[in-house]
Amino acid sequence: MSDITGAPHPLAGKRILICGKGGSGKSTFVALAAGSLLRRSYEVLVLDGDASNPEGLVRLLFGGGVEAEPRPLIDFFGGIDVVTCPVDDPAPLTRVGDTRPVPEYRVDLERELPAEYFLADRRLRLLQAGKIAQYGQGCDGPVEKVVRDFMVQGEAAQLIDTKAGVEHFGRRIPDRVDLLVTVLDLTLESVSIAARVARFCEAAGIDRLFFVVNKVGAPEATALFRDKLGPEGERVIGYVPFDPRVQEASLLGGTVPEGAAAAEIAKIFGRLEEAVGPSR
Ligand SMILES: Nc1ncnc2c1ncn2[C@@H]1O[C@H](COP(=O)(O)OP(=O)(O)OP(=O)(O)O)[C@@H](O)[C@H]1O
Ligand SMILES: [Mg+2]
Question: pLDDT tens-digit profile of 85-125?
Fold first, then answer.
């Protein structure tokens, strides 16, 4: 796949799931990755699949001035009382009144999805799977089914941000993704998550699993971390530096600034493109 300039777009139409431990930098990575893909002249769709994080990616991608969040996609499929948990009911997501499951026929974003379901800025679109909004509303399995099955028509590279931890693997959410990126910070918890995610992916037959080490500072700590990762370290495709401006912006409530972290993430996407190959 290429654009009018002839530049190849190996990640066009691909679903890229970003996972990792709490606070490792998944959402920041997604925001900077979106910028990097836009600069490579991709169309980009970001799906916020984290039901717990109230503002999610709105601020990181669009800044603090946005008044309304996108309507949750789960409403498009009949709401939390209609969409089932993928463990209790693995059947694919299907729209109310339709017989064709979404993963097969795929949603036509332009023609089928009302504008209230996304925030857009030129070639970037942000959608939210669903949020926990009410006390006692139940588990977020149905939201994750939307994450698993929301397949769309078109050529957008799709970045899917997830909640912390590995529950998605218990629910088989990665069954319908093309690439999986696990963001690791320099902690033993991330070492343990890396080992578990690698094991899950092996069991599920997912071979496009990549690790990104984030918030990297002193070389000694990075070397120690790499040591702890052991053979799983082979999957690391980039070391993103700790960037004080990124942290500061997250406190001030603005978009994620370009800088050292963004520059490394741009290189990571070059490597992901290589890993996927020149054509779809
Ligand atoms: N490369 C970086 N340099 C400096 N700070 C960073 C970097 N990456 C992330 N952070 C900071 O770390 C904190 C957590 O980042 P973020 O919210 O992206 O993590 P997360 O994994 O999405 O968290 P959650 O599990 O809550 O969804 C934020 O304050 C963010 O600004
Ligand atoms: Mg997050």
Answer: 999 999 999 998 899 999 999 999 999 999 999 999 999 99
Q: Are 19 and 198 in contact (CB under 8 A)?
A: no
Would you give the end-to-end CA distance of the chain in angstroms?
6
CA atoms within 13 A on the CB side of 197: 33
| SS3 assignment, position 139 | coil
pLDDT-based confidence at residue 229 (cuts at 50, 70, 90): very high
C-beta 182 within 6 A of ligand 1: no
Distance of CA 231 from the midpoint of ligand 2 (Å): 27
Mode of pairing for the β-strands spanning 179-184 and 44-48: unpaired
- Is any atom of ligand 1 closer than 6 Å to the C-beta of 240? yes
> CA–CA separation, 86 vs 102, rounded Å?
14
Contact 151, 106 (CB under 8 A): yes
Tokens of 86: 């993928």
In this structure, which long-range contacts are made by residues 104-113, counting pairs with CB atoms below 8 Å and at least 24 apart in sequence? 106/151, 106/152, 106/153, 107/150, 107/151, 107/152, 107/153, 108/152, 108/153, 108/154, 109/45, 109/152, 109/153, 109/154, 109/156, 110/154, 113/76
pTM over the 0.90 mark: yes
Q: Which atom of ligand 1 is nearest to the CA of 251?
A: 29
Class of the domain covering 15-276: alpha beta
Is the sign of the CA dihedral 55, 92, 134, 137 positive or negative? negative
Stretch (H or E) spanning 276: helix 260-276
Q: How far is the CA of 47 from the centre of ligand 1 (A)?
A: 17
Q: In ligand 1, which atom is closest to the CA atom of 240?
A: 1
Distance 55 CA to ligand 1 centre (A): 14
